[in-house]
Amino acid sequence: MGLIACHHMTPHFVSYGLRCACEILGRAMSLQLPNVEAQEDASEIIQAQKVQATLIELLSGEETLIHGLTRHMPTVLDLVPAAGAAICIDEDTHLLGKTPPALVIKKILDWILKQPEREIFATSSLSHLYPEARPWRKEASGVVALLLSKSHRQAILWFRQEVVQTIEWAGNPDKPVKIDGQETLTPRSSFEAWKQTVKGVAHPWKRSEVDAVHDFRNALLHVVLRKSEELARVNAELEQSNAQLDIFADIASHDLKEPLRGIHNYAHFLIEDYPIGVPLDEEGIAKLQTLITLTQRMEDLINSLLHYSRLGRTELVLQETDLNEVVHQALEMLHLRLRETETRVKLPAPLPVVFCNRVSMGEVFYNLLSNAMKYNDKAEKCVEIGVLPSRKPGKVPPTFYVQDNGIGISPEYYESIFRMFKRLHGRSEYGGGTGVGLTIVKKIVERHGGKIWLESEEGKGTTFYFTLSPEVK
Ligand code: ADP
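# adenosine-5'-diphosphate complex -> structure
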């Protein structure tokens, strides 16, 4: 609604032509106004969208909402034209620009939370609705509040300052219009301008500005939802790794105690059998030798433990890897033992190039190949490395295998052999070992998203199978 009023100091006849001209002028202006407003709105909407996109991007990289919205440029204050903004999360309030103090904002928010609006609350004259805000009308006459969660007191508020307006009326608008005895309309007593001062009012929030806040709310909710899903996933992983850690600590402490007990006992024997002044004989030297072996074993166990725990903590860098090269490197490292044991190695077909961690894959093949040779009592030892023909390429990841014609494994141990320090044989049988190799292989395979399993027949041989990525559903 609008009005163009013209006054004259003396009675003045406005001709028909002039009246028509005024009408055309009025119409032309009112036709132009929405255009001008729409143009202004359009550029403000584009600007708000840009700020929103940047803020959402910044938020994804930050841990908390407050950091994401305040630490970088732009801040949340740039989303809509306002003098100040406040982000309230539970009892925390973060202020930007010109705002009332945090304690006052808390009270304002408490009042807003009691209002029926569920998503956005906007007013350009807060103190008229909420008189307690009157002392702060300079900073907070206009308020738009984005309510993220009413129950958790999560909201973002933007403030506009009071604009004291002096409106000049052509006469007191509240004074009743006088009609003289002859029923003619007379001006309100005089032409002297009547001034009215309007307080506690800010520039009104435009529709496009409230819409921008609304859009931002939707985008924020999306990010918050995604983050909470992510948190739930990390929590689940943490729970699983805590459970694993418990089992792991149990096994590790049990197995580490074994050589420690040995060291303790042998040290006691030595003290008892060789009091001061008694020289060590052959038996004493042998006991010392055992002590050295036990400490060596303990060091091996601790190193394996460390290696295993580091595997889980370091980032797995994946790259295009030619598995033929990886296998050849592993075979090269084992070439002395291969020659000694006269093991025949077969690679029926070339292996593919896959996306994996090259060093870790070298470790997988090294462990599987050395076991295949180690746990083999055949005169003609044979190892085969290959990949199974894929059933559904692209959906089912390739299955690799390492097969031997060795001693085999009884089905009851198919799971436990992957456990830390688990060995099926005496300490020095089959060349000894720490029982960590397969645990590490399993961990590497699983970190790639794959699985490991085996088929075996006692006395005939074992085949270890593994994949390096999950099946595509
Ligand atoms: P280590 O070889 O140090 O004992 P591993 O974790 O590599 O540790 O293997 C665990 C156990 O699984 C071995 O002690 C062995 O008993 C059994 N095992 C592993 N690979 C084979 C295989 N190819 N054939 C038969 N037994 C095997």
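# post-check
The CA atoms of residues 376 and 406 lie 4 Å apart.
The longest helix spans residues 207-273.
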